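Good morning N.,

You mentioned wanting to compare the apo and holo forms, so I went ahead and generated the holo version with acetylphosphate. This is what I fed in:
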Amino acid sequence: MRVLALNPGSSSLKTALVQDGKPVGWAAWSLPEAGDDTTVVGEALDRWSTVDAVAIRFVHGGSRAGPERLDGLAIGALQRLIPLAPLHQPRAVGLARAVFRLRPSIPVVAAFDTSFHATLPPAATHYPLPREWTRQGRLRRYGFHGLSCRHAARRVGELLDVAEPRLLCCHLGAGVSVTAIRDGWSMDTSMGFTPLEGPAMATRSGSVDPGLLLHVMRTAPMGAEEMEDALYRRSGLAGMSGTDGDLRSVLASATTGDPDALAAMEVYLHRVRREIGAMAVALDRLDAVVFTGGVAAHQPELLARLTEPLGVLGIEADSERCLGDGDRVVSPEGASVTALVLGTGEEKELARAAEEVLAARTRPKAPTG
Ligand SMILES: Nc1ncnc2c1ncn2[C@@H]1O[C@H](COP(=O)(O)OP(=O)(O)O)[C@@H](O)[C@H]1O
Ligand SMILES: CC(=O)OP(=O)(O)O
Ligand SMILES: [Mg+2]
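and this is what came out, ligand included:
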């Protein structure tokens, strides 16, 4: 099956043609350079003319436990989740609508970041808020980067000779999260109700004391839109350093001795380390730590600096090994935890989801009686 995978991230739009599980074509844009949804989809469908299905990454799927085939009704339901993932969900909805417009006969499958975390233990999903707020089960922690985590768990299973591996998946892209995974199951994760919780990100604040936000609301009153803009688009590395938040820009400013950029890097690394520590306690032992996402792929030299103070958890990365290519072990010989850099497998997981959903639809029904 030839699946066109569409992966709208917060700083990029990645597309791939995946044939029988193997990516055979790839195109990516930095945002905001990518054209409008119809142009992107039109170009992809022209480039890879024979496509059996389109798979789209939706970061928020609410309580959906697995991928699903989209129709107009389903898109409408996903559109209602836009306020819970304002950097991602509008583009995913727009891409789906563009495929329907341009090629109404191609099946479109949505795969959700949140589905991987649908089985999180209750203690990891529940917010300590008034019962009246949480009773319906909607105001809870959902978790994100699930397609990336699923791929990381799959690769660790293939690469390490360990039964029921316990691993941490550190996704370092424009969004940043850390997830504890036990034998393929999510045990805890740093992102929550929205992809705003957790470490500092490219333009997102990550976790801040809610009391600080209350204070700001009182002293500099602003509406929800303005607060959303500040927390999602004007905070994180961008807000701290005065750059666009791309790690390349922050590192370039830090190299010139810019004090804000230097401080931003320290805060960024400190907050990722803190989440690594927090997630480790969701596992009864630690076999592996995976670094993935654009930063792990393109700034692997940062990983030795990131892991330097993590010896207390047995996590180490060797600076020479970090500089290698492809999926690789970066921990030194004899380290108690295997540290790996893995390519981000979201597009492969998208294609797999489309194959699963469409195979289930065409499979003949088992005879009854
Ligand atoms: N070609 C590249 N060269 C160097 N760094 C890159 C490159 N592409 C991405 N990055 C780094 O990866 C980060 C974005 O990660 P990525 O996972 O692609 O983002 P998204 O969250 O949009 O999916 C950027 O901040 C940048 O530091
Ligand atoms: C969920 C999320 O933050 O995704 P990305 O890193 O692709 O922006
Ligand atoms: Mg991404």
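Residues 2-137 form a domain with the Nucleotidyltransferase; domain 5 fold (CATH 3.30.420.40).

Happy to go through it together on a call whenever suits you.

Best,
F.
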